[in-house]
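User: Run a structure prediction on this.
Assistant: Running it now.
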Amino acid sequence: MELSNANFYAYQPVNLPAEIDHEKAAKANATETPFVQGEGDGNAIDPNDVNQDGYGSCAVLSTIKSIAAQNPDVLKNMIRDNGDGTYTVTFNEYDNGFLGIGSGWEKKEVTVAGPFDGKAADIGDMGKDGQGEVWPAIIEKAYAQYADGGYKTYDDGESPADVQEAILGRDSSTESPSEYDSGELSDKLKNGEAVVAWTAGSEGWNDEQKKLAADYGAVGGHAYRVEDVYTDADGNTRIKLDNPWGHSDVDMPYSDYQKLYHEVNSTPTK
């Protein structure tokens, strides 16, 4: 999918080269670890581990937030710690085969290394030994290499649907928010689907959308994890949208969400 009206970031684009500096990786291995079960975490992989920093990688990070909430083992199993500061990450790529023969999902491995500093996703939790949790940054960097042969700049738009398919190895559904009533979207969450909603670029918003964005603090050209659809004390149906920044989440009436948000991508995680 080409996302001509959304750039999915509000940060300076940064190149992520594929070459591994093994000396730096070995040093990083003393201070970084893939997984930490921090205080308040339900699992070593938890949605609150994901905090976007400088890269425009919200499509990736909102997707892994949504998968972490539904089936964290998917993310844990896709990362292999090589013990030397390098990590091999397994994605899924669809092969059309020859004239449709032999088509299907195939595994594709990408190896990345620390240190995960600078503009990479922020440290999730700190372990008792002082090592910082870096699984979100590992996937963020690995996806950049998977998606563009090792030299992806996170400034050219990325569809959460593509990210979901690459991680889960299943076809993703892409719809307008108006296609799902609140019950249908709620059912997707209850059934264990990863659900991400995103806004179009603010330059294309009409006056009503601009007001809604200002009222609820929503950002243009940005992807959010759909966290919950619920009924408040007054009987109003609302939606919670989890911002991969680690702050500035959006909680709004479902009807306003349908007016402001541009598309919703969902994929089963089990």
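The mean pLDDT is 89.
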